[in-house]
């Protein structure tokens, strides 16, 4: 039997909840209070005026409040979700058009990445592989340039 290179992200965590984008703010708050983190998935939606944007804004605001009060509440954005987080963090549309479809690349870590919540417990050999080998899958139409001043605000929240 071949060894699996995948990890089930739901192992050891609560079952996921799904939020409908047409709920009231009170319904979002009730759902938020039953969660221990939020994932903003990919897809296609307007970052400023869609139901997705409204729901993300409520969960983002509540997550910031929880974290400010010492209640660690992780927020993850994948693809559209990350784009939404850039907008919610900066208050601006700061994305840059890019064409990195079906490209494997090494990561270009910022100097303080090893001390971040995301990477501080990652084994050194894994960090080295991520930084030197083309093992990350990239399929993007939009990116955040490190030259955009708001990038440091987004990076600081990792």
Descriptive notes:
By secondary structure, this protein is α+β, with helices and mostly antiparallel strands. The N terminus is likely disordered. The protein has 2 domains: 74 residues, no CATH class; 46 residues, no CATH class. Strands 1-2 form a two-stranded parallel ribbon. It has a two-stranded antiparallel ribbon with strand order 3-4. Its EC number is 3.4.19.9. Pfam families: Peptidase_C26. Its main location: secreted. One of its GO terms (molecular function) is gamma-glutamyl-peptidase activity.
The whole-angstrom Rg is 17 Å
Q: What is the count of distinct domains?
A: 2
Helix-and-strand structural type: alpha+beta
User: What percentage of amino acids are in beta strands?
Assistant: 15-25%
Largest sheet: 2 strands, parallel
Q: What general form does the structure show? A: globular
For the secondary structure, the number of strands is 4
Oligomeric assembly: single chain
Record the strand order, biggest sheet.
Answer: 1-2
Low-pLDDT runs: 1-15
Share in helix: 25-40%
Number of helices: 5
Q: Helices and strands, in N-to-C order?
A: HEHEHEHEH
Distance between the termini: 37 Å
Q: What is the residue-mean pLDDT, rounded to a whole number? A: 83
Main location: secreted
InterPro entries: Class_I_gatase-like, Pept_C26_g-glut_hydrolase, Peptidase_C26
Pfam family, one: Peptidase_C26
Protein name: folate gamma-glutamyl hydrolase
